[in-house]
Every structure is written in structure tokens, then in C-alpha cells.
Amino acid sequence: MQVLEYSGDELEDVAGEFFLPAIIRTGPAFRGRAAIQGLGETLTLSRSHSGQMSALGTDRMAARASADNLMIFCIYIGGRCRVRQHDRCAELAGVRGCSPRSVARFEWASSAEARRKSLRFSRELLPLRTAEITEACAPRRPVAPAMQVLAGYLGRLFEVADELTAG
Q1: What is the mean pLDDT of residues 32-56?
Q2: Which CATH number does 2-163 carry?
């Protein structure tokens, strides 16, 4: 497990390496913390806590990232966030999830401190059609019971990841 603590000035580099490449804006007192657990070559699980911020993944970044074809699935377990992608917007509060893709432009903003669990993976690991993924990127309806179960599962997976074998 790797634990990172970072300021707003460092967040863009952290996001590009461990989450999705983005242009980041934060306040001067911004602080963040992430615990990152590698689960394989193309699979990373993380828990993070950060202050108010906004992120923009541009079309140019998406074009560069398409070779990696990365996706990230985030579950917000505290705080509020707004995600816009594919001309859709989702407001996330409580236990809600979303999955912005690195191969498409996105906007992300949190208005206060936020806690989240994230799973970053290669698109090849997700056996869904592109249209199904696009539909899930900015969900329009709450799915809190399913997200609570998934958040618990990812939390437990994070705790036991060091003991897991490749198989």
C-alpha cells in the first residue's frame, strides 16, 4: 500500500499517475490524502480524502489517454460532488457512484471536503458494450443501496489486498 499526502500544487501530478489525467483547480489551503493499493498491472484500489477542488479532463487528454483505455469508478462516501460527461450531469452526495472514462472529456467538482473509494482499471477488464458504459458514466438516478454494498465490498477488499495472491 502506498499513502500519499499532497497539496493543491501536487494534485495534478497525483491525479495523472494514480487516477485520471486532469487540469486541477484547488484553494490555497487544499490538502489531500490517498491510500493506494495495487491489485495487478491494470487494477488499482484507493481511498482518498480531499478538500474543495475541480478537475477537467480535456478532449486532448482523452486522446492521449485512449492508448491506456483507463476507467475509474468512484464511490463518494462523504461530501458532495458534481460530475459532467457525455452531456449529462450527476450530483453525488451520500453513498453514490459514477465512472468517468479517460477516453472522453469530463468535468468534476466538489464543493466541500470529500471522501471516496475508487477503482481504476483497464477498459478491457469490463465486459460491457461502450453504450452501456456511457450510460453508466453519469447516473441520473440514485442507487444508494447497491452503492452501500459495493462501498463495503471495496473497503474490505482494500483491507485484505496485501494478503491476496495474483490468482
Answers
A1: 86
A2: 2.60.120.10
